[in-house]
Design a protein that fits this description.
Layout (H helix, E strand, L loop, with lengths): L2 E5 L2 E8 L2 E10 L2 H19 L5 H4 L10 H13 L1 H7 L6 H13 L4 H19 L9 H10 L15 H22 L23 H10 L5 H10 L3 H5 L6 E2 L4 E4 L2 E3 L2 E3 L8 E4 L2 H14 L16 H15 L9 H12 L4 H8 L5 H7 L12 H8 L3 H9 L1
Antiparallel strand pairs: 1-2, 2-3, 4-5, 5-8, 6-7
């Protein structure tokens, strides 16, 4: 049986042709990616052998075996030259998944943000190419896709700290797989196997906002040089990438507003998350005061929150060194820093701010997400006893009002 094998950490082909065992050495190191690529070549060789279209010297021109198969090569070349259309039809060059992935990723980078491009490339390298790389695009089946999805839930190496992949992350892996298969199906005219494979259900993540008292406690006791940073986070609902990328040129303290025009993701300046994310945030007095103090510290730098060299803060480092130790010291429940955004939203709702205004402040295009995520924090949203209407009626002398109507 044909296979790709290794000798001294270098890969070689091992197959039979005309009853003779052929071993053809390569200079490629024994890696998963190289094995995948050579397996693709080997599959093509086997297909050509079955169709009597294999010319040994075309694939291995420097091999000592070329002389052994010279007469076969000449016969097959003659047939291929006399039947070019048939040969082209039989050997339709549908690329392997690994080959097409290289092309597809390059083509799509132009429309992706750098952080997203890195994410997708990582998914291909870590998940998709090891599983599908050796198959031609038309050989991948729906059953194979479904079995693969089920197989990656459990970690390959079970250790004390290993965890199952979340449904959300598995969906992230499947999204580019669907995209590349659909594109290949269009280009090479075969039915896409990614049919009626629905995303896995994702349970809503419970938000854990701070109470106003907890916010006040945190801001009063957090390290002084980070008090202004967290004041802005707690009272503007800015996303992590937005506050990381906040520059002084987008802060207008005369108009008490911050413009969200850029974000910072993994050290790269990018555009905001969505069209609605381009926005003007109206600043409350605590935020204005905090920014005025911060201007005395970093006003001569580009970024509002940065180190002594003017480089923006590394939010992972801040979380590890400041955020969690502060929560532990104050005996507050450990929560992700993103909860500052949820906290701001719930405090705005509790204060009775207009939901449409809140949605715009947060960078949402509608109030839909606001009510879906924070519904239990909307005054009277979960109350179904009619008490709010009762209080309205109590404010009016109902009988008197009725009499006035008929006068």
């Amino acid at each position: 049986m044909a296979s790709i094998r290794s000798r001294n950490q270098k890969l070689f082909f091992d197959f039979y042709y005309q009853g003779i065992r052929c071993r053809e050495q390569t200079l490629l190191n024994d890696t998963k990616l190289n094995r995948s690529r050579l397996e693709s070549v080997l599959r093509n060789i086997e297909a050509q052998i079955r169709l009597d279209r294999f010319v040994y010297s075309d694939i291995f021109p420097d091999s000592k075996r070329c002389e052994d198969f010279k007469k076969y090569d000449e016969q097959i070349k003659f047939v291929k030259e006399s039947e070019p259309e048939l040969t082209e039809q039989l050997l339709l060059n549908i690329p392997t998944f690994s080959q097409f992935a290289d092309e597809w990723l390059v083509e799509n980078k132009v429309q992706w943000k750098l952080s997203h491009s890195k994410n997708v490339s990582m998914i291909f390298e870590r998940y998709l190419i090891p599983a599908f790389g050796a198959y031609t695009m038309d050989q991948i089946t729906r059953a194979q896709i479904i079995k693969y999805r089920a197989s990656i839930i459990e970690p390959k190496r079970k250790t004390k700290h290993s965890k199952k992949l979340s449904n959300d992350w598995i969906n992230h892996v499947m999204t580019p797989l669907r995209g590349i298969l659909n594109e290949a199906a269009l280009r090479f005219d075969f039915p896409t196997p990614f049919i009626n494979i629905k995303p896995l259900k994702i349970n809503k993540t419970a938000i854990e906002p701070f109470s106003l008292a907890e916010v006040q406690l945190f801001l009063s006791r957090v390290r002084e040089d980070f008090s202004d940073y967290y004041t802005v986070r707690f009272f503007t609902a800015m996303r992590t990438a937005e506050i990381d990328g906040l520059k002084w040129q987008y802060v207008n303290l005369d108009r008490n507003e911050i413009l969200i025009q850029e974000t910072l993701v993994d050290g790269n300046v990018e555009t905001p998350k969505t069209t609605a994310s381009y926005r003007s945030i109206q600043l409350s007095q605590p935020v204005v005061t905090a920014l005025k103090r911060q201007r005395n510290v970093t006003g001569n730098k580009d970024y509002v929150f940065c180190n002594a060299n003017g480089n923006p803060l590394d939010h992972r480092n801040v979380t590890k060194r400041i955020w969690y130790p502060s929560l532990d010291e104050m005996r507050l429940k450990r929560r992700r820093p993103y909860q500052t955004r949820h906290t701001c939203a719930t405090l705005w709702l509790a204060a009775g701010e207009n939901p449409e205004w809140i949605a715009k402040q947060m960078g949402h295009s509608t109030t839909k997400m606001l009510f879906e995520v924070y519904s239990r924090y909307v005054p009277n949203a979960t109350r179904q006893d009619g008490s709010a209407f009762d209080r309205l009626i109590e404010q009016v002398n109902f009988h008197t009002a009725s009499e006035n109507i008929y006068e």
